[in-house]
Amino acid sequence: MINITFPDKSVKQFEAGVTPLQIAESISPRLAQDVLAASVNEQEWDLTRPIDTDAEIRLFKWDDSEGKHAFWHSSAHLLAEALQELYPGVKFGIGPAIENGFYYDIDPGDNQLTSDDFAKIEKKMLDLAQKKSDIVRRDISKSDALKLFGDRGEEYKCELISELEDGHITTYTQGNFTDLCRGPHIPTTAPIKAVKITSLAGAYWRGDEKRNQLVRVYGISFPKKKMLDEYLVLLEEAKKRDHRKLGKEMELFAFSQNVGAGLPLWLPKGAALRDRLEQFLRKIQKKYGYLQVITPHIGNKMLYVTSGHYAKYGKDSFQPIHTPEEGEEYLLKPMNCPHHCEIFRAYPRSYRELPLRLAEFGTVYRYEQSGELHGLTRVRGFTQDDAHIFCAPDQIKDEFLKVMDIIFYIFKALKFDNYEAQISLRDPNNKEKYIGSDENWHLAEQAIIEACEEKGLKARKELGEAAFYGPKLDFMVKDALGRRWQLGTIQVDYNLPERFQLEYTGADNQKHRPVMIHRAPFGSLERFVAVLLEHTAGRFPLWLAPDQVVVLPISEKFNDYAFDVAKQLESHDIRAIVDDRNEKIGRKIRDNELKRIPYLLIVGEKEAQNAEISVRKQGEGDKGSMKITTFAEFLADEVKKSINQ
């Protein structure tokens, strides 16, 4: 008999060899019907895989991210099986689950895939799913795996197998399709009731532009057709909220091939928006004792060799800049932190200066592949709201609490109300992956855990997800459409202080190594603006809106009064513009509502005679007439409310 411990810490005994599915059946038939995947001792586990020793178990349903992951992973295999039947000679790369659905990278050979094929692929997938084939896991030796996939001409799979350790290789089979895979998967194809192929894209094998370009087939699946229908409605809404579309309509940013792919141009309204975000954070940082610094956009290559960033980002960086000096090379900086380490080293430091908080809106550059570029969310040059806190080990917790306060304030001001947090910890059974002493790791991890407990933040703990240099806390925000974005991160780093030999003199007059905390509440201004655009559908909080008010004269003879209104509002620090085009008022209203300007002020003969304005609010319609000063006072109160909610 073995002891199985459940999440509520209750323990039940089962015979060795019991499967998670059998355990679910022992609890209730309904649970057995709904469960999709499991974890055993924090390891992903198939529902039909035996458990032979005492274990902690968790069971996952559709509402759990782990349940969706297994469902979509199996759907990727179902997609591959359908493609194998429809397109003889197709070869397979990798097919993982992703945040929303799955994809499979394929080499189509002589076949041509277009969007016209989507319906045919979907039908074949559903036909195969209805066969309710068992999805069977098998252990296989490396030699047998190479023979199995080699005989099928699967060169991409053979390359992957050649890099795997013998004794740790598994395949999964359903119907006539067998794939190299670690799993886990759902037990059968039966739960897959609705599928949609969403798009095609190009993807280089192993992300290497020198290798073959494959076709990436994206899809999504659900256990009920109603769920797919609801998702497609959300997808249409997402298209309307696409930040690239909104950015163009609102005149925020642009891209030019003459400037270069992935290098955004911030137009005046977008630049003003960025500046307001920067000033918003600068004001908060000043309150918390941050010191603003500025560092160059380039640095000597050896700076990034010392930091380790050249080894990590070298392939993804722009090529070194060679100067006329023999052997001298510079890089466009991929990270700000090495520069901040050099600022710390610029003077002898004392424990009295700690914590030292250095902040910078620093622009960094990484050579993302052209196929990965996407609007503002994936660019080659971006500005991080970076800060690095140099502190003593016993100061980590207090600094964490303060950074969390900053992040919570930002989320509240921008109405990111739905978020979750993850504490990424070291794997205690694989310590060689990490640097730093056990004592320092314990201090850092406990500081993060205790900080979350003090704030009442329910954070999921993930073993083995820490960076090699220290534990971290990540914030995942759900936007208005339920999509998850990582926006805030706080990381503890023992690595860079060691690499740069950073020191401070302690109260004992001895030299000590500081700990470094990285934090970026926005992440990058580019990505943050993109997420904010899509979250708000371009309807920014009033304090942040590029234009807060537009004045609309109903004919040209009231233009002078319209400009006078705008001037009076600007004297009250209200951002106002005038639409003096020779267009009908209905057209002006429609055009400016498309620009998501919060307030539209209509002026004509009556308003000019009475020194008034007719107020219309975006999305709410007419609000009546009022004096200009009355409106200015009203708007000032609205601005305060919008930032302090």
Notes on the protein architecture:
By secondary structure, the chain is α+β, with helices and mostly antiparallel strands. Strands 16-20-21-28-25-24-22-23 form an eight-stranded mixed sheet, sandwiched between helices. Strands 2-1-5-3-4 form a five-stranded mixed sheet, with helices on both faces. Strands 6, 7, 8, 12 and 13 form a five-stranded antiparallel sheet that branches. Helix 3 (65-86) crosses helix 4. The longest helix has 22 residues, at 65-86. The radius of gyration is 29 Å and the shape is globular. The model has no long low-confidence stretch (mean pLDDT 91).
Write the layout of secondary structure elements.
Layout: E1 2-5, E2 11-14, H1 20-27, H2 29-34, E3 37-40, E4 43-45, E5 55-60, H3 65-86, E6 91-92, E7 97-98, E8 101-107, H4 118-129, E9 136-139, H5 142-151, H6 155-162, E10 170-174, E11 177-180, E12 194-204, E13 213-222, H7 225-241, H8 243-249, E14 253-254, E15 265-266, H9 268-287, E16 291-292, E17 298-300, H10 301-307, H11 309-313, E18 321-322, E19 329-332, H12 337-345, E20 356-365, E21 381-391, H13 396-413, E22 419-425, H14 438-454, E23 459-463, E24 472-478, E25 484-493, H15 495-499, E26 504-505, E27 511-512, E28 515-520, H16 525-536, E29 549-553, H17 559-570, E30 576-578, H18 585-594, E31 599-603, H19 605-610, E32 612-617, E33 621-627, H20 628-644
